[in-house]
Amino acid sequence: MNMEFVRKLTIPAEVKEMYPITAAMADCFEQRDIQLKKILSGRDDRLLLLIGPCSADRLDAVLDYMERLRTVQEKVADKIFIVPRCYTNKPRTTGKGYKGMLHQPDPEHKPDMFKGLIAIREMHMRIVAETGFTCADEMLYTENYKYLDDILAYVAVGARSVENQQHRLTSSGIEVPVGMKNPTSGDFSVMMNAITAAQGRHTFIYRGWEAHSMGNPYAHAILRGYVNKHGTSHPNYHYEDILLVSKLYAQQPELQNPAIIIDTNHSNSGKNPLEQIRISKEILLNRQLNADVGRIVKGLMIESYIEDGNQPVGGGCYGKSITDACLGWEKSERLIYDLADML
Domain 13-342 - what CATH class? Predict the structure, then answer.
């Protein structure tokens, strides 16, 4: 084979033995899981807000951000339930660029997957212990979910992974909510097929085992915009888009807990993070205009960090994204309070 096998990585059970969660962390995970599922099933009418950096690139800045977010959560807890983004796996369209802390615990040094596995587990554990948050992460590699399955609150399947069979079947065996993004082409049927697969029961190979999944009733849709054949971004967060997805759900009554999350960045914003402010407010207005939209749109996803914009790896600006551009902290904090006032 035209590749070098560097070393066999430590299995998840061994990593968990090395870095075990405490009883308090386990209780936090369980209580937040209950609340999140109540929101997605419609038993709790609070807005779900998935917010945080495009990529969790350095521990100190991420913890700083989470502490700030914790203070805001306490003030809006009656209206908004926050699940922070702590994305440690980053898909790269061409395979180039920073692939996240899993690959490079230090973005300026060469990849080290073993150190990365330890770093991402430690980061998630510290966030829970120090802020009481359990977080969301993207499932770039299906095999890696087991390293975090006792502490991760929410899993997102990205636009380039949503058509992959292994991602769909693995999602069917995950106990926490999984959001399926529409593909980059914008085809809603791909997203709906992924939700159907994730909610079903399957037998498949997982980490070298014959696995039987029970189905995930909390698999749901994430609308993130799309690009056309010319590479031009087009949004799909508008009123008509939401009604269309709602209709697609209605055509499949076997699907449980119909829900839509709107990703306000990516192709919905044309990757202009400042547009997330307007888009978020427009979505909440649409929820007020139509009861069906209000019921099915359960939350928003916002890319936010300490500083506005982004920078290259090694740029040196603390709390500024080294992947997609993000909304800075001051604007993010103001937006959360504005959203709470609209609810």
Answer: alpha beta
